[in-house]
Specification:
With 122 residues, the protein is α+β, with helices and mostly antiparallel strands. 25% of the residues lie in helices and 44% in strands. A hairpin with a 3-residue loop joins strand 3 and strand 4. The longest helix has 16 residues.
């Protein structure tokens, strides 16, 4: 009887425990052909912006694909950057992904894209 309660308690702990995985991707996500020369001091860092998007899956059902989630977070960041009609650019773009799960019932994937906004002064 004692072994039964111990094994049921162990199974309950494994089934109801939550885990999280986090990792960051650093890279150049700009696929345009604009070349910016940053060798001289002709710019200043004016802001740091970020955009976040998340999706929830319940029993593996629901939500967006990973690429759509990234695009949503990236467009959220661009909306906050206010780059229109100015001499600003985004640099040091960082993509972070965090996955929280309670196996196999609930999964939440959060993608955060952040970057520095620079403004050219000359």
């Amino acid at each position: 009887m004692k072994t039964l309660f111990l094994s049921l308690g162990l199974c309950a702990m494994i089934a109801l425990s939550s885990c999280g995985v986090n990792y960051a991707i650093i890279g150049n996500h700009n696929l345009n052909n604009t070349q910016v020369q940053l060798s001289s001091n002709n710019f200043k860092v004016v802001d740091k912006v970020s955009g976040t998007a998340y999706v929830q899956y319940i029993v593996f059902i629901g939500g967006l694909k990973k690429q759509q989630l990234y695009e949503k977070a990236y467009s959220d960041m661009l909306a906050k950057a206010n780059l229109i009609n100015s001499s600003k650019a985004l640099v040091n773009i960082l993509t972070e992904e965090h996955v929280t799960f309670i196996t196999p019932y609930y999964i939440r994937r959060t993608i955060t894209v952040s970057a520095n906004v620079i403004e050219f002064v000359r």
